[in-house]
Amino acid sequence: MTDLPHCDTLALVRQGHALHITLNRPQARNAMSLAMVAELSAVFSRIEADDTLRAVVLRGADGHFCAGGDIKDMAGARSLPAGEGDQDPFYRLNRAFGHMIQQANESSKVVIAVLEGAVMGGGFGLACISDVAIGGPTVTFALPETSLGVIPAQIAPFVVERIGLTQTRRLALLGSKVKGNEALQLGLLHQLCGDGDELDTAIATALDRVRHCAPQATANTKRLLHRVGKEPMGALLDDAAAQFAAAVRGPEGAEGTMAFVQKRPPAWADIDTADNH
Mind listing the GO biological process terms from this record (predicted)? Predict the structure, then answer.
């Protein structure tokens, strides 16, 4: 079992097969500071090789997910000498977030985002890399960058992947806010909950479904999905068939088939979800 790093901007709680990560800067509506970016990156790096951990639940403290980037970091970068290319402090600040969000996007774990209150800027991008997005009644999405004279540089590509180019154009170029049912219709949310109890039930249900899915098959499926549209379809399907054959003959395929025949849960579903660390 992986030892988790010490974090100042995140609250980490291990519960059975899930790691609950709470963005914990409530005084700033959990705005994404450089320290938070570095800590999120460290956590995702540390847990990647932990096969006992199968899901990550991302949430914000005190009713807000994340209000975007930390303006104080922007001010700090402005006070530094300007550099050329990747030596520019603004480049480094922005690109650090991009590396982290790409890392989270490519994680082998099932990433469940619990979205409440402000989901803006970097928080919007983080929501768009989740595998399961569950919203509360106060959720409000926005890409306000253009109204601040900047661009959603590391965020926009993931929003396009999530909801398509035409809707991303509208949200990014107008800075419009999107709430509740509209977010659900756009595909920013998979589920919209009416209150806290319903939200807790939705999280528990998602984590239970993760428990019933084979961990290696889940990780391989996620990697396969990320390749769609980036490789020639014929070659992709050839490789997918090879992976399927290996999975059928592998230990998870054998156990899954036997469990189905014997009308019992597979071995990977037999874990203690109440285990807290």
Answer: isoprenoid catabolic process
